[in-house]
Design brief:
Number of domains: 2
Largest sheet: 3 strands, parallel
Mean pLDDT: 85
Number of strands: 5
Order of helices and strands: HEEHHHHEHEHEH
Number of helices: 8
CATH class of the largest domain: Alpha Beta
Distance between the termini: 60 Å
Enzyme class: hydrolase
Shape: extended
Pfam family, one: DEAD
Helix content: 25-40%
InterPro entries: DEAD/DEAH_box_helicase_dom, Helicase_ATP-bd, P-loop_NTPase
CATH topology of the largest domain: Rossmann fold
Radius of gyration: 28 Å
CATH architecture of the largest domain: 3-Layer(aba) Sandwich
Family: Belongs to the DEAD box helicase family.
CATH superfamily of the largest domain: P-loop containing nucleotide triphosphate hydrolases
EC number: 3.6.4.13
Strand order of the largest sheet: 3-5-4
């Protein structure tokens, strides 16, 4: 028998029970092996961006964005991209360079940690709109899920301003209107023609409702989530 095990058993036998309570004598201490923490590369080596808003790229000098987006941004009063946008947008567009409008290849996942008001919505909305505009086929290719209705409404309004002067269409599925009216928006455009939206902005519960209860609600072609 291993001597350490024998010593441990001997010590346990020497424990004394007094009044129903065990008097524990000195125990042999064992050194626990240290567990080395291993983090994924994207957590251990994140890409950082400046907190100085003046470091962002000027919209009119950006070689990344197409003219219609530059025009729409300026109509929104945006003259300079925030640092988080200047960092994220090239990363997304670089992957899809030469891949649109089919969007083939395994897409990149991006996790952004930034405070409220730092421009995260535009960071993903701008490249999505630019890439979707290169396609002439209208199917649901982008689904944007927000936790509450107010945030979903804000994101929808941002997308609507960005897609001005394009044929792209965005719908809001967040319970703001009746379920039947949302189903109509999924099927038909403003002119009454059958035309699926390109972008769906929704809350989690409402998305599930449409997946189960709206015939023809197809997410087969989604490339951006």
């Amino acid at each position: 028998m291993n001597s350490a095990v024998a010593d441990a058993q001997r010590i346990r036998k020497e424990d004394v029970v007094i009044g129903g309570f065990t008097l524990v004598r000195d125990k042999q201490r064992y050194t626990k092996p240290q567990v080395k923490e291993v983090l994924p590369h994207w957590i251990s080596s994140p890409v950082t961006c400046s907190s100085d808003l003046s470091k962002g790229i000027r919209v009119k000098k950006s070689a990344l964005l197409e003219k219609f987006l530059v025009k729409n941004l300026r109509s929104m009063g945006i003259k300079r991209l925030f640092p988080v946008q200047s960092t994220v947008i090239p990363y997304i567009l670089d992957f899809y360079a030469g891949r649109a409008p089919l969007f083939f290849g395994h897409p990149r996942d991006i996790c952004i940690s930034a405070p409220t008001g730092s421009g995260k919505t535009l960071a993903y909305a701008l490249p999505i709109v630019q890439l979707l505009n290169s396609s002439s086929v209208h199917v649901i290719r982008a689904v944007v899920i927000l936790p509450v209705r107010d945030l979903a409404k804000q994101a929808e309004e941002t997308f609507k301003r960005l897609i001005a002067s394009t044929s792209l269409r965005v719908v809001l599925l967040a319970g703001e209107g009746s379920f039947a009216s949302e189903q109509q928006e999924i099927y038909f455009n403003a002119e009454g023609h059958i035309s699926p939206p390109d972008v769906v902005v929704c809350t989690p519960g409402r998305l599930v409702d449409h997946v189960y209860n709206t015939p023809g609600f197809c997410l087969e072609h989604v490339r951006f989530l």
